[in-house]
Prior knowledge:
By secondary structure, chain A is mostly helical. Chain A has helices at residues 2-21, 33-38, 81-107, 140-148; strands at residues 42-44, 50-53.
Amino acid sequence: MRTRTRGFVAVGLLVALLVAGVVSNYASSHPDGLDSSLLKGCTVNADGEITGGSCPAQQSRDHELADGPLAGYGIRGVDNRFLSTGLSGVLGVLLTFAIGGGAFWLLRRRGPATPAAGDRPADDRPADDRPEAGVQAADEGQAADEGRQPTGTAG
Amino acid sequence: MHISNGIINGPVAGIFAAVALAALAVCVLRGRRDLDDRLAPMAGLVAAFIFAVQMINFPIFTAGVSGHLLGGALAALLVGPWVGALCVAVVLIVQALVFGDGGVAMLGLNVTNMALLGTAAAYLLIAGLLRVLPRTPAGLGVTAFVSALVSVLVASQGFVFQYWLGGTTDLGGNLTGLAGTVAGVHLLIGIGEGLITATTVVSVAKVRPDLVYALRNLRPARPAPVPTLEGVR
């Protein structure tokens, strides 16, 4: 069970790396929905700079960390745009996974007790979801099967 | 949909930073109940995946405007509302502190809109729709699409509310104009969000339905016969 989840996460991570590392180069460079809404009332040139009129976006200020090494989804010093965007995306995915995954791993429930289960009766969780220390390895296959039964919706 | 520095004034940004921090603390407390050895790595993956897909700005039908995934509905479906909000918040924090995307001073506003409002709106719809729609891939897909679309609209109106409180440009009382523009654009972006969310969640559900939080917690159709699991054994 554990190894299967690990495999799923590994495959998912690979997809994320491909998306951020390669597909990101084909993303639209137009302003997003919010930025474009804030530009209403202004005229904008081909580079996206405001050339006239009056709009909320004129109040926008530089980012505090605009000089950071990865600011703007590129790597400072790497001139090749494809490489710069892709690498910054790969680093971003790994960083997000490390920070998020690490924090969630540290925050997770541990031990055989049913600590903060609170308002939720322990028994309505799938069998393989319960952190029971007593579950033997031999039971694991069966436990996994039971766990899938109530959730076979999309099968 | 990241707010840049200077768009909302400092005091309002500060208030929302406090609001966001308090709400995230609640999410940590409640989310711990869901976080076990299986959900924790999955939540890390969801955060990383949302970061990746947020890089893909897709064009919408309006010329010269793009949109990208926010991810609240996706996170709520896969890892639940509490951990899901934390996933989106992690993405926003990394983006603001490392990638210069969304002002650091605006982080509380952005977390409130995308991580909190978006995820909450999505999960309320998910919980309701999964109860009434058929338990099929189509039912799950429709749930994902609708909840994702609405979550983007709600998040975008969160911004309008913040702008009403502390926008730095006097719109001359024409806030409804801004609200309409923002809603119109984000309706189109929401369609993209809905398609991405539905495709992703239905794919995961086909391979590993047990990893989809929203399906895991579905009660059986009849009143839960709790002891059966032990009885069969």
